[in-house]
Amino acid sequence: ASSNPEIANAKLPANFAWGLSSSAYQIEGAAKDEGRGPSIWDLLSHRVPGQVVDDTNGDILGQHYYLYKQDFARLQKLGTPWFSPSISWPRIFPFGSGPINEAGLKHYDDVIAELVKLGIKPALSLFHWDTPLALFNEYGGWTNPKIIDDYVNYAKFIISRYDEHVPVWFTINEPQYCNWQYSYYPAGEYYPSYGIGPGAKARWLCGHHTLLAHAKVAKWYKEEFKGKGRITFKNSGNYFEANSTSTEDAAAVSRAYDFVLGWFGGPWTDGDYPQSLKDTLGDLLPTFTEKEKKLIKGSCDFYAIDAYTGYYVGAINDVQACATNSSAGGWPECVSQSSVTPDGFGVGPSGDLGVTWLKSTPGGIRSFLKTITKDLFPAVPDIMVTEFGFAEPFESEYTNIQDATWDLRRADYIQGYLDNILLAATEDKVNVTGAFIWSIFDNFEWGSGAAVRFGVQYLNYTSLERTPKASLFQTLNWFKTHGGEFVGSDVNATLGR
Ligand code: PNW
């Protein structure tokens, strides 16, 4: 039950999509099996000292590639109506383009068939940061416009094969992170730099190419292929509140939103980058041709936001100097961001001392949904929270399995966020159509490896057993209480009703 009396009896909008999310490299394991080609993350995790804090990798962790039937059976047993994973591009095209790996394809045929059999709807990402290494080695991955055609070729192939069973497609997960390339280009010691130079330039180039790749696929999907589902990409962003009522701090908030959300939201809602990006970045920011602007505008069917937390934002002194120097404090937004309120309190509890960026700010998600749909991008028809979740705690903090599964801070985070997503719908009249929790079970958390756990199920890294945490039951109970959809018939028994 909700702690918030305002919404104790409130019901979700009809057809609200909810479920758990994940991504291929983070849960599949089987990295060297059945013809999968390497991705940049195999390189990063195996070859780049310091890239992953605990020197782990996605080679095996989770083994969802082999255990997907069990994982889906549990989802269905619990009644979860949606699952939002990603397909591994290098499993289908081991070299990024060219020959197809039939074993990988057969695997995803089976995965989709299993979901269909169980009545679980996939919201499927085509790309979640696992750029085929061959394309990186050959031409620099997302920094090179050549990747657009290779991505489009892959995306069309997958969509044509599975569209009948996939109601929601995400072309790209969080293009902001451009495959992490912008952050590791300066470390030219470990990879060729392709003449791109410092991170500042690579970042905007990668973003530009992800936008064009997305737009080409979306255009084809809607106009030529006439797909049955809806298509968009997943944005990443956090709620920003001004440090003070000063005009400088208000301007800093709007600047931060432009750089985080407008960078991608501007082109598809308005046809171009926000003016503030053009003014500050000058030649660093690529430009769209008129034809490209037309291609991108309107290329998303709805707004998808991965939103984990919120910050206080203020102005910094020399914005221009910061903008052109990727190692400057505050780059690339070039504002100050803080997890402390102006009167000196923390914005919210942190799940884990190692994940300092992530504080629980449930009120922020409500304001954020309103800000995105009413202020920033009023053209957006509806919005889904495609990821939110909490890290708690480091493996070393556990003394036993009960500690690990009794994840009360995560349970509280999830309930607080769901309450506020519901309030955004009922009180603020935001057209919010879905919410996916990150993540189905503890997985490979990129630079934090196996050290940071985001799952609503505990993963025993040795036995591979998954154990539901308190937060998973809390989630089920919340959706039951507020009229969420369930598949299967066992959920009442599961919840002891
Ligand atoms: C997401 N931020 O990325 C990713 O899509 C997941 O793969 C990842 O496991 C998950 O977050 C948890 O970290 C984010 O700076 C990247 O606020 C950055 C931020 C949030 C999410």
Automatic annotation (TrEMBL):
This is Glycoside hydrolase. Keywords: Hydrolase, Signal. The chain holds residues 89 to 585 of 585 of the full protein. One of its GO terms (molecular function) is beta-glucosidase activity. The keyword Signal applies. It comes from the Eukaryota. The keyword Hydrolase applies. Belongs to the glycosyl hydrolase 1 family. One of its GO terms (biological process) is carbohydrate metabolic process. The lineage of its organism: Eukaryota, Fungi, Dikarya, Ascomycota, Pezizomycotina.
